[in-house]
Design a protein that fits this description.
The chain is of the alpha/beta class. It has helices at 19-25, 39-46, 61-75, 102-110, 125-140, 162-167, 216-220, 230-251, 269-279, 290-293, 300-310, 341-348; strands spanning 2-11, 15-18, 51-54, 87-91, 115-119, 144-152, 170-180, 187-195, 203-204, 227-228, 259-262, 319-326, 330-337.
């Protein structure tokens, strides 16, 4: 039995933020230190970011996720209301509230009766959510599931720090999965996953949790925003994404030469280029949205997957690999053989 994608969707907030806007608002960008370069020139060279999307006032993660989920369900020609969907698994690190979970708000918005689970995971979140979903579909015989990655990183990004403001964006992506006895040649074929909890301080929000509850000090010192060690993260992320890509391909019983498309976590254009070079794969095989979406955390892979799918990038039987690494620190990849559900639905009709 195969687990295949039968619908994709994504949502990006309406507001688009340029590098020039960020330079105007940032408190720590120094053109003299950057040898006279504007922030736009600097960002394009250093990591490839040009624009990114930002949530509107009052717009929360569950809103982004609901839009993406509805689009994926529409693509799959499935009505979410009632019991048409058995399971919703959503990954995010920017839940609307501590309780209730944003995944539950999405379920309510869709008027679904599906079991929902929220995975507290960032950059590797979509892969983690796929792994959980696949296992539950196998063990509980669920037939239809909705997998979502959504993050509104604007709410946890230091508001006047140029580096994270040029790197991170907001958005959501979703896929609809179905189990089918007749499609054993398609779908999810293997996973690779791992974690380095001792490196969790590479990406951290110190304040607001049980270790350091909200207080005047937390707000005064901006401890409720992301802290990060970008040079260490970059080296670590490249190493782990290389590792899980090679491992997941081997587990699928294929070689790197068989991989038609790589849909990676959108960490930066330079990281993707380095990974392509070390895997000896053409950079054109990497689906990239980073220049105009930035790093959208758990949403980055499903957004890229959907945009490529809407452009009819994939052909029936193509091998896809989706690797990710980031906050946690965690990594993972899935090997997937593309099922052209539009083509097959026309044949069946």
């Amino acid at each position: 039995m195969a687990t295949v994608i039968v619908g994709t969707g994504s949502y990006l907030p309406e507001r688009i933020v340029t590098n020039a806007e960020i330079e105007e608002a940032a408190a720590d960008y120094d053109r003299e230190r950057a040898e006279g370069a504007s922030l736009d020139e600097w960002a394009r060279v250093k990591h490839g970011g040009v624009t990114r999307h930002r949530v509107a006032p009052g717009e929360a993660t569950s809103d982004l996720a609901t839009h993406a989920a509805r689009r994926a369900l529409e693509d799959a020609n499935i009505d979410a209301t009632g019991d048409a969907v058995d399971l919703i698994v959503m990954a995010t690190v920017t839940s609307d509230y501590r309780v209730p979970q944003a995944a539950g708000l999405v379920q309510a918005n869709l008027r679904s009766k599906a079991k929902f689970i929220q995975v507290d995971s960032g950059c590797s979140g979509f892969i983690d959510a796929l792994l959980v979903t696949h296992a539950m579909m196998e063990s509980l015989d669920y037939r239809t599931a909705l997998v979502i990655g959504a993050d509104a990183l604007a709410h946890i990004t230091p508001p006047r720090a140029f580096m994270p403001l040029t790197i991170f964006g907001d958005g959501a992506g979703a896929v609809v999965l179905q189990r089918d006895d007749a499609l054993s040649d398609y779908g999810i074929r293997s996973f690779s996953t791992g974690s380095d909890g001792d490196l969790g301080h590479y990406v951290c929000i110190p304040g607001g949790g049980s270790r350091m509850p909200f207080s005047e000090r937390v707000l005064r010192e901006n401890l409720h925003y992301l802290t990060y060690k970008f040079p260490e993260i970059r080296r670590w992320a490249i190493d782990r994404m290389l590792r899980c890509t090679r491992e997941v391909v081997a587990r699928a019983g294929i070689g790197l030469q068989d991989v038609k498309w790589v849909i990676p976590h959108q960490a930066s254009l330079n990281i993707m280029s380095d990974i392509a070079q070390q895997l000896e794969l053409p950079v054109d095989a990497f689906v990239s949205t980073y220049a105009h979406t930035g790093n959208t955390s758990s949403a980055s892979i499903p957004i890229a997957l959907n945009l490529a799918n809407q452009r009819h990038t994939f052909s029936d039987g193509d091998w896809l690999v989706m690797p990710a690494a980031g906050a946690g620190m965690a990594w993972g990849a899935v090997a997937y053989r593309w099922y052209d559900y539009r083509q097959h639905s026309r044949v069946r009709a």
